Amino acid sequence: MPRFRFELLKECKKTGARLGRLHTPHGTVDTPAFMPVGTLGTVKTMTPEEVAGIGAQIILSNTYHLYLRPGSDVVKEMGGLHRFMNWDRPILTDSGGFQVFSLGDLRKISEEGVSFRSHLDGSTHFLTPEKATEVQMDLGADIIMAFDECTPYPCTHEYARSSAGLTARWALRCRRALSREDQALFGIVQGGVFKDLREESAKAITELDLPGYAIGGLSVGEPKPLMYEVLEWVTPHLPADRPRYLMGVGSPDCLLEGVFRGIDMFDCVLPTRIARNGTAITSQGKVVVRNASYARDPSPLDPNCGCYACRNYSRAYIRHLIKANEILGIRLTTIHNLFFLLNLMLEIRRAIAEDRFEDYYRDLIRFYPRDDESGYLDEEKGGESFGF
To answer: Whole-prediction pTM value?
Structure first.
């Protein structure tokens, strides 16, 4: 049996939703799946045991950050990222491309790669597709991402075409550079918000015959309905027997809409970042628990949630902790937000398995409007370029 294998178990007859299993050297992931983000080799405020305990089967770590600190050579010397952070389940590492391209004036793109200055100390670095792959081989993740240019929004058709072409050429170089048989390389479809370019990019990337494919360059400022339209353009051009990964998306509405359109994997820093701002994701929208209106509220963050925080603590107590800058406060909101999304994905999988996903989607999506007034975008802003 190959070390990496994707099983497509079932497809919803009325939508594009898919039920699957992703087999990796460090275990199996049930899909659709949400991946908590452990940017620096840790999901903020939580131990790996706690992350596993709330249902996470796979996490994401960031190549850019670990390359700069502590250094991929250090991680390799310590036995790889799994051993370094004491996580024995699958890991996906992104290539660092999004963070590098978010540096703006601190980076310069060429055909060969990207030169950039570290946001930590201003030191100069040069990242190529080969180097990005080498760093990810040192880290030892189960799934690694091809180095790509994350096309900005908005941009011209000409720029998006050039960017998508560069991404395709870099993906080929990444495939040639990969020498570890225990790692699966995913290619990334770019092309901005232009249908012809997305289709061209999907064709070029899938011709590389990689184990999985990601859709990048979304959730970068475009309206949500436009993002969903792009998914509808792209997914028909991706092979059905490979996992499909929508990068950087993690609000409940986007997860539901993505699954509806055939996406298998998601990641986002949103649940952990807004948790640190005192915001909880609930079954009926967001709860900004730091607000004064919750000072005497004895109810849990979400009465319908079974997480540790909701079973044991009130909104009033969690608000007190956050206002007092107590670490326990953001631990509790983080535990809740991640549990909520992981449980959402579990319920989505059950709904697909039981042929009721369309009804489940319609019952839930009414709490999360399709436009940008869904309530999470304002909380998302600030630091997202670096995955904090």
So the answer is: 0.95
